[in-house]
Write a structure and sequence with these properties.
7 strands; alpha/beta; 36% helix; 141 residues; 5-stranded parallel β-sheet
Amino acid sequence: MTELVDFNLIRKILETLRTVAVVGCSPKPGRPSHDVARYLVAAGFTVIPVNPGQHEILGLPCYPDLAAVPCPVDVVNIFRRPEEVPAVVEAAIAKKARVVWMQEGIVHREAARRAQEAGLWVVMDRCIKTDYQNLVAGRSG
């Protein structure tokens, strides 16, 4: 079953919400999570790497989990296996994030439903970098 994508909502998220916690951010430059985080920093987002095994990624302080992040978070960008998504969604709800964004290839409908019930917007199985490039950065005027 194909999910309907609300491109207007995605554009609104990417144009107005600026603080992104990248859960599962890798310190390794070849990894998609590292590439996406680096791109978001270059695009002007405040990026907060979240990875329990690291203290710093991309020269930014890295936190072991969302609860340890000392500032508000707008978007929780998830680079974790689907079975780990529900715990991240619960942490996003507790953190009072506005959006849960499951990266391309990550789908968890029950966790998405839980996030929506808690009032969060949900984007699932999409790349935040690609959507930013296509819907925001590529726009003129």
